[in-house]
Amino acid sequence: MDTMRDRFIAITSQLLAEEPRLAVVLADISADGFAPARRAHPDRVINVGIREQLLIGAGAGMALTGMRPIVHTFASFLVERPFEQVKLDFGHQGVGGILVSAGGSYDWPAGGFTHMAPGDVALLDTLEGWTVHVPGHPDEAEALLREAVDGDDRVYVRLSLQANREARPVGRSTGSMGSTGSTGSTGFSVVREGRRGTVVAVGPMLDNVLAATEGLDVSVLYATTVRPFDAAGLRRAAGAGPGADAGAGPSADVVIVEPYLAGTSTAAANEALMELPHRVLGLGVGRAELRRYGQMEEHLAAHGLDARGLRERITGFLPA
């Protein structure tokens, strides 16, 4: 299976030939992969070098002219380092664009903490109007990217080497309880139904969540889009949807498993469930810096995001 980043390069190179207003702005990262596209479209594939503030500014400048920029580098250099430019050049100027990151939270541990970005989604959460996609498979990344190219809004697509074994459909409809398997780029899809709690798996965390909850009487929701947050879908899963009987339905205990900073979406979940007695546990990457390089799988285990660690914490939180 190709990686999400491989698919991004291939599909974006294809879309450049189909969409005359599309442009790609790079900061050396993935420049080799985009070399054929740059030869074919030298005015629309721009490499600014290792100048991340300029990367964002150039992309926003293109948006001001009516182009649809795709701006790409590692997450730590795309969101964290040039955050002021993301806030002002896109947000303050009111223009749209697509930020596509690579590297996830710790895809390349040998790169050290400078190349890790577990706080990227939480940081974007401080800004208005950003759609955030976290695909769990290259097919999903492709579908979400194609959808983003058709719009004019501000979109962040977070790519990772970690991926689920199988892709799930990505569309515009919203999943709901009673329609297992339905999905939506703006809503959570229902993968499994149960009555003793709800576990939301974000992007590449789904396989580990399914393994961790095997045999448990819980609902599992899958999210490839975390902003906007699917408040209605979570309420339905928690038994607070339209027509739900008081005291009936699944328990309003919710666990959110995210491949970035733990607790990033707990405020959104609490707001969604504010009219219902509930508890929310946010699982994800811890705040402590792990200073041994190791491998990605070792970082997952150290943060309790492997199947064993997730099962221990989920069963410890949900009622028996």
TrEMBL record:
Pfam families from the UniProt entry = Transket_pyr (PF02779)
Which intervals hold domain Transketolase-like pyrimidine-binding?
A: 2-166
Region (Disordered), start-end ranges: 167-189
- Which residue intervals are annotated with compositional bias (Low complexity) in the record? 171-189
Q: In the record, which residues are listed under signal peptide?
A: none
Matching entries from InterPro entries are given as: PDH/Transketolase, THDP-binding, Transketo_C/PFOR_II, Transketolase-like_Pyr-bd
**Protein known as:** Transketolase
* Organism the protein comes from: Streptomyces cyaneofuscatus
